[in-house]
Write a structure and sequence with these properties.
308 residues; single chain; alpha/beta
Length: 308
């Protein structure tokens, strides 16, 4: 009897993914691969809830601190990096445990990637400059004219997805909606666990407590230090991350401390809502309430049964 090649733990922000992954790694002889588009940035520790030094010492972690916050990361690069980490961990007789909340990355692992052109930093800067002058809704209207199917799926304020859809059209000469679904990379075998809190109110309370803890630990000071160290812009992917976006506005005098907290918590709740929506579209072998006391035991039992 053999198990799948990896164990995937998918769930919304602040639901307890990291704690569950650590418990499973300890019980099953595993190592953790971060599936988090924000934890790849060096120096962005507090606002991304990056594992502590003690947690990293207890269990090996992978795909953390890969790039500077001035750089960009992609689902394509994640797929390459994750597969390499999985192969390395398995070669040492350990269990790869992929845990995080970036559902696009999990989708890439589950379904493979569309045959899309690579990112173009110059083109992205050009689109950012246009958005600064015209606004993202105006660029969304442009997208609707050339790719109505993609525009229908993307909100007028979703800067990152609008930018990518326009970039694909300019690079490939064909709409994103046409290219999607064509040649895909081969997916790998895994056991998929969806963490779905039974009580949304309990998740919201955890989100508020965690954001307060981030602020108390020095999130604003962390961003101030990053701005002093790097030539950062608010349109960069790193600075669009929830928490950092609001802290940036606070440092620029646009939000007072109370508004920073309120908007940060509200944005995190919206992120969790989007993640839960994504979860419903992804195939999961098991759904678990991460706030239940027996969550770890339930996943361990199902993992053992998966080999039968």
């Amino acid at each position: 009897m053999t198990h799948p090649a990896a164990l995937c733990i998918m769930g919304p922000t602040a639901c307890g993914k990291s704690a569950l992954a650590l418990a499973l790694a300890d019980a099953l002889g595993g190592e953790i691969i971060s599936v988090d588009s924000a934890q790849v940035f060096r120096g962005m520790d507090l606002g991304t809830a990056k594992p502590s030094a003690a947690e990293r010492a207890a269990v090996p972690h992978h795909l953390l601190d890969l790039i500077a916050p001035t750089e960009a990361y992609s689902a394509g690069r994640f797929l390459v990096d994750a597969r390499a980490a999985i192969a390395d961990i398995r070669a040492r007789g350990r269990l790869p445990i992929l845990a995080g909340g970036t559902m696009l990355y999990f989708k890439a692992l589950l379904e493979g990637l569309d045959a899309l052109p690579a990112a173009d930093p110059d083109l992205r800067r050009k689109l950012d400059d246009e958005a600064a002058k015209l606004g993202w809704p105006a660029l969304h209207a442009r997208l609707a004219a050339i790719d109505p199917d993609s525009a229908a799926r993307i909100a007028p304020g979703d800067a990152q997805r609008i930018q990518r859809a326009l970039e694909v059209f300019e690079r490939a000469g064909r709409p994103l909606s046409v290219l999607q679904g064509q040649a895909r990379a081969k997916r790998f075998d895994a056991y998929w666990v969806a963490l779905v809190p039974a009580e949304r109110a309990a998740l919201h309370a955890r989100i508020a407590r965690r954001f307060d803890a981030m602020l108390a630990a020095g999130l604003v000071d962390e961003l101030r230090a990053l701005r002093n160290q790097y030539d950062l812009q608010p349109t960069m992917p790193s600075m669009r991350c929830v928490g950092y976006r609001q802290a940036w506005q606070h440092l620029d005098g646009e939000l007072d401390a109370k508004a920073l907290r309120e908007k940060g918590i509200a944005a995190t709740r919206q992120l969790a809502k989007r993640q839960l929506t994504w979860l419903r579209t992804l195939r999961a072998d098991q759904a678990v309430d991460p706030l239940a006391e027996d969550a770890s035991a339930a996943v361990r039992a199902a993992w053992q049964a998966a080999a039968d």
